[in-house]
Design brief:
Layout (H helix, E strand, L loop, with lengths): L13 H9 L16 H16 L6 H20 L6 E11 L19 E8 L3 E11 L2
Antiparallel strand pairs: 1-3, 2-3
Protein name: Tctex1 domain-containing protein 2
GO biological process, one term: microtubule-based movement
GO molecular function: dynein intermediate chain binding
Length: 140
């Protein structure tokens, strides 16, 4: 509902106000044990998705970009189903051709070691390697 005049229009914030009323206010600064990011459960989700999407496939440079995007979205959606409330989820997928060379990756970030965590899994076959990482960062 806009109550302003043409000279001084006020933005319509009614939808914002409705959403604010629906959300409960919480000043919890740490996740409770039941809602804490569980690395083993997330690792299982990653493993299932990687096997489902890549098992039996041969590396295809034209399809690799789409595969990695589909895998990332699928992992994110399935981890969301675990209902880690107030966690921001980030998914990184690295997919490449298996040629005998090694791959080294590193990640650095600033986070709370008591509540933030990550889980990773690696898939390999004769022609493909794929590494997927899910980061769960508690949102204060």
């Amino acid at each position: 509902m806009n109550t302003g005049t043409d000279e001084d229009p006020l933005p319509d914030v009614s939808k914002f106000e409705e959403n604010q009323e629906e959300e409960s206010v919480s000043f919890q600064i740490r996740p409770c044990l039941a809602n804490k990011f569980k690395c083993e459960k997330v690792k299982e989700v990653i493993r299932e998705v990687l096997n489902e999407k890549l098992k039996g496939k041969t590396y295809d440079v034209a399809a690799a970009g789409q595969w990695s995007e589909e895998i990332a979205v699928m992992i994110k959606d399935r981890v969301k189903e675990l209902n880690y409330t107030r966690y921001k989820l980030m998914v990184q997928v690295v997919l490449g051709e298996q040629r005998g060379a090694g791959v080294v990756t590193a990640t650095r970030c600033l986070w709370d070691a008591d509540s933030d965590s990550y889980s990773s899994e690696i898939f390999t076959n004769d022609t493909i390697f794929c590494m997927a990482v899910v980061y769960g960062v508690f949102f204060y």
